[in-house]
Amino acid sequence: MIGLISATSAGAAARDRLAAAWPERTRVYEGPVGDAVRAAFAECEQLVCFLATGAVVRLVAPLLGDKTSDPGVVCVDEGSRFAVSLVGGHGGGANELAREVGELLGAEPVVTTATDAVGLPGLDTLGFPVEGDVAAVSRALLDGEPVALEAELAWPLPALKVSAEGDHVIRLTDRLLQPASQEVVLRPPSLVVGVGASKGAPVEEVLELIESALRDAGLSRLCVAELATVDAKSEEPGIVGAARELNVPLVTYSAEELKAVEVPNPSDAPLAAVGTPSVAEAAALVTGGELLVPKRKSERADGLPAMATCAVVRRPARGRLAVVGLGPGARDLLTPRAKAELRGAAVLVGLDQYVDQIRDLLRPGTVILESGLGAEEERARTAVAEARKGQAVALIGSGDAGVYAMASPALAEASDDIEVVGVPGVTAALAAAAILGAPLGHDHVSISLSDLHTPWEVIERRVRAAAEADIVVTFYNPRSRGRDWQLPKALAILAEHREPTTPVGVVRNASRPDESSRLTTLGSLDPATVDMMTVVTVGNTATRDIAGRMVTPRGYRWQTAEEGSK
Ligand code: SAH
Prior knowledge:
binds S-adenosyl-L-homocysteine, Rossmann fold, alpha/beta, 566 residues, five-stranded mixed beta sheet, 5 domains, 19 helices
């Protein structure tokens, strides 16, 4: 929850905008600001104070405890010009919150944490628990001193600017060890603990079993990603309680699924009770991996029979492939999610001209694999191969990466040994439509006129179908130097079903510095004025030019504003 505190009416107005935008995330604290800040500090994970920084410093100073548990505090000034991340930049998420608040209120986010300022990710913001001397290693990274990355597991990480050797070390491991001085240990979620328990097994017994199994195997409990068991035990209090104590999710599988898993130590007891010869080992092994601790039973001080079993598996590390649409060109049409994926990538794969579009956003040290036009298949293969090595990879495309772009060739190469995430982007048809007016107000299609990947007969059949169905059409790849007859041919097919006066919008370089657009008609469009940087949108029989804007009505009974008001 984010606590909101204000003192003046201008502050209250900004506060209300935030509260209205994030009704689920925020709570307004009224009353004297001192009391409000103290209450919010105790009750919320984050605070936004619409007060001077000086006032907030005085109010929160006596409340500050530990940077890992204190709430993050953001201050917004009276004029909503700045959103200052005051305390809890990383641990309390105040840096990120300052950016979000800034975006919402049109205020400049002020972030002074060193790692953020120079584009390095904070070691405590990588999404993994961290142990060791975070401050010393961060300083070394900032000062450009050599920092070695010793990754025992191929877990995907953002670019970190590390060297082969160094006095400072970032270690990525699930082994139990005490960090040396000048060392941080990153704890990836690499372990799955399978658990079985008989009815009524106490939480302490399950927990003690898991902890001793990890300890004896020399594994860190910080790396436990989840507990796993059979469906029938999804509400067994001992197992549910242990998951809560360890602060990890509990996942469950059907007895059918578990029966199919090959395990070293099957037995008859669970087969009779829940219908699978193994619960702990099978549940830990369902999604693959290496069995580090075979089935082991709890020990009871009172000598009664054990009520719990567990087994520990190290999951195979999975690389991550983010397929990211960059939008049509303008930076403010690049989504925040796309930006976050670019900053989380250690390897970036893309066409050179698109890489140029976002190069400044990349973390220092990001490996850039760029190639020229035409190397699509190769780019797709490269991106997938890098992800298979365990890297965090971003594969970029302009507009939406799934529209006549890299997503399908990449996913055709990929198998389930990598994680794939897609980030949608504003595709050219939409960027152009917004410039033209509202041409896509009713049903519409996109058709690429490039016959490099598609035989012309197929393209022509689709154009004809759109023409007959009276659907608005946006042509991508409309015309290039070597391909000049396709656009006139496609327009001629549409003209068999639409009047010469049908509006046609031509948009070149939408949202780029040399953007241009014009509205013409099917009868008078000169195809020679169209090139590969352009999309051409042809209206349907109801589309009109209204005050220079291209508008397709939602229904087919067209009314002017005057008729409507009669
Ligand atoms: N993935 C891209 C499309 C790639 S196909 C997207 O979703 O937008 C390339 C074609 O897209 C170009 O030939 C052109 O027709 C169109 N295009 C891409 N960006 C454009 C822009 N900013 N303005 C106009 N057309 C654009």
